[in-house]
């Protein structure tokens, strides 16, 4: 098992996170991205997010993909101004 996750990463970082690894047709890849893309300090547009995921997934051919969707934001823990909200990550 190899974990290349990095806190604060967005879909823009997918390709650089796997540099030096070899994803083969016998691997299972777990992909979990989304909430950081919606962070006000990143604000990756939805079209770009979709393109980043599409480009990454089409450039690798593992045995299987597992996508973990972000669970949403616990809005009780938000900073008062300029934080992620469920409305931002919903599209």
UniProtKB/TrEMBL annotation:
Species per Swiss-Prot/TrEMBL record: Microlunatus elymi
Keyword Hydrolase: yes
Molecular-function GO terms, alphabetical: hydrolase activity
Keywords for this protein: Hydrolase
Domain of life where this protein originates: Bacteria
Name of the protein in question: SGNH/GDSL hydrolase family protein
């Amino acid at each position: 098992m190899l974990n290349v996750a990095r806190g604060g990463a967005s879909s823009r970082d997918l390709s650089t996170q796997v540099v030096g690894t070899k994803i083969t047709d016998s691997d299972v890849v777990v992909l979990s991205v989304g909430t950081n893309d919606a962070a006000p300090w990143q604000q990756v547009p939805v079209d770009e997010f979709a393109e980043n995921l599409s480009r990454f997934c089409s450039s690798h051919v593992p045995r299987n993909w597992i996508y973990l969707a972000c669970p949403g934001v616990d809005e009780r823990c938000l900073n008062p101004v300029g934080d992620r909200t469920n409305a931002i990550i919903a599209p």
